[in-house]
Specification:
The complex is a heterodimer of chains A (about 100) and B (about 290). The longest helix of chain A is centred in the first third of the chain and has 5 residues. In chain A, the strands form 2 sheets. Chain A has a 3-stranded antiparallel sheet, with no helix packed on it. A two-stranded antiparallel ribbon of chain A has the order 3-4. Helix content of chain A is about 15%, strand content about 35%. Chain A has one domain. Chain B has about 290 residues and is an alpha/beta fold. Chain B folds into 2 domains: about 120 residues, 2-Layer Sandwich (Nucleotidyltransferase, domain 5); about 140 residues, ATPase, nucleotide binding domain (Nucleotidyltransferase, domain 5, 2-Layer Sandwich), CATH 3.30.420.40. Helices cover about 35% and strands about 20% of the residues of chain B. Chain B is built from 8 helices and 10 strands. Chain B has a 6-stranded mixed sheet. In chain B, strands 9-8-7-10 form a 4-stranded mixed sheet, sandwiched between helices. The longest helix of chain B has 23 residues. Classes of the chains: A alpha+beta (about 100), B alpha/beta (about 290). At the A-B interface, strand 1 of A face strand 9, helix 6 and helix 8 of B.
Chain lengths: ~100, ~290
């Protein structure tokens, strides 16, 4: 399952995308995030009827990740100047389950 | 003397027992309790078939609303909450359903419920709820493959529509049909926020727009916003809409026009607001059987 956490507003699309098929629930992304945007939670798996452990956005940051994540994305807000910066949460993810849409 | 203030936003709360169904001799009786931000729904299922349901407004307490709507669904059936073998809570207030054995997110429940209501051909479910909007892709078993939820603002949600119904003094159930009583389709209102869209609508009324045209512009804006969300997860046929806004023909038709195809029609025997609670009740059955 692909989960898109985040929102779209007048300035763009801000989504943190998790592929639950890849995520191993290790929580390295949570530790890596300097802003405390992520925390581990459970999501029901209808195949096994068990809960799987995956990251999601904390309530505090869920509706403002454009700003919360900005310090990890230097230069991205300046039009045309964005160099692809890989944020620490994405870098920390060994199974490559996480991406950012912006 | 003060003039009576009508509540134009008010939508019907009701309960229903499915005709010809009985719980006597049943193996498994399960309940799915979907406590949403605006409405609470309970579906009672007997051996995996829908038996009864109720839909009402969520009160100030999630636990109280869960209990009230479930007792109402059971009213006149001879069953009480104690007779239910397994209950799953879902929705915004899912962890506050006191008699539920398990809480499952509404995403999983909506996909499963839509699969039950419309069948295995459903690939995209759009849930237009009270305070959020979810775009879900699922497989033939109703398992979620991709989803997106927008709860950042009330535009495109049921609560936004309630505010508009009140502002324009149009009963909420007439918003859809009346939005087509226009000569020409107007531009959608440009504001994505309900508060600003309301200001914009007041401006349009002052500029002499008839109420119907303002309704058209607002429902079109709602449709436009939702198409953006859908495009992010991708829209595949068959496409269905759940939640209260799916009953608003003004939004649905304008949405279909932008997508270029139609949503499957509503099934008369299932209210599209109970998709999540049906999914929860089905998971309850699976979990109960697993525990046996």
């Amino acid at each position: 399952m692909i989960i898109n956490y985040g929102y779209k507003d007048g300035s763009g699309e801000y989504f943190i995308v998790i592929d639950t098929a890849r995520c191993n629930g290790c929580g390295a992304c949570v530790t890596a995030c300097p802003a405390g945007v992520l925390e581990m939670t459970t999501e029901f798996d209808p195949d096994t009827l068990e809960d799987m452990v995956i990251p999601h956005l904390t309530e505090e940051h869920a509706k403002k990740i454009k700003y919360s994540c900005a310090p990890c994305k230097p230069g991205q807000d300046m039009a045309g100047s964005s160099e692809a910066v890989v944020p620490p949460c994405v870098l920390a993810c060994q199974p490559q389950a996480m991406t950012h849409s912006w | 003397m003060a003039e009576e203030k009508k509540e134009f936003w008010r939508w019907p709360e009701y309960r229903r027992t499915v005709p010809g169904k009985d719980w006597k001799g049943a193996q498994v009786i399960t309940a799915g309790v979907d406590v949403g931000s605006v409405s609470s729904k309970t579906a009672i299922m007997v051996d995996g078939e829908l038996y009864a349901y109720a839909i009402m407004r969520t009160g100030s307490s999630s636990a109280g609303s869960a209990e009230k709507v479930t007792n109402w669904a059971l009213e006149g059936t001879g069953l009480t909450i104690k007779d239910i073998h397994y209950t799953v809570g879902t929705g915004y207030g899912r962890v506050n359903v006191p008699f539920a054995q398990r809480a499952i997110t509404e995403i999983a429940c909506h996909a499963r419920g839509a699969n039950f209501i419309w069948g295995p051909t459903v690939r995209t479910v759009l849930d237009m709820g009270g305070q959020d909007c979810k775009a879900i892709q699922c497989d033939s078993k109703g398992k979620v493959t991709n989803f997106l939820m927008n709860d950042k603002c009330a535009a495109g949600t049921g609560r936004g529509m309630e505010v508009f119904a009140d502002l324009l003094n149009v009963p909420i159930e007439e918003v859809g049909p009346r939005s087509f009583e226009i000569d020409e389709e107007p531009e959608p209102v440009s504001s994505t926020c309900v508060v600003f869209a309301k200001t914009e609508a007041v401006g349009l009324l002052r500029a002499g727009w008839p109420t119907e045209k303002v309704l058209a512009a607002y429902t079109a804006a709602m449709a436009e916003r939702v198409v953006d969300l859908l495009n992010r997860v991708g829209v595949e046929k068959d496409f269905v809409i759940t939640g209260g806004i799916s009953k608003n023909i003004g939004v649905v038709r304008r949405l279909e026009k932008r997508l270029g195809f139609q949503a499957l029609p509503m099934k008369p025997e299932f209210d599209p607001m109970i998709a999540g609670s049906i999914g929860a009740a089905l998971f309850a059955k699976a979990l109960y059987e697993k525990g046996q």
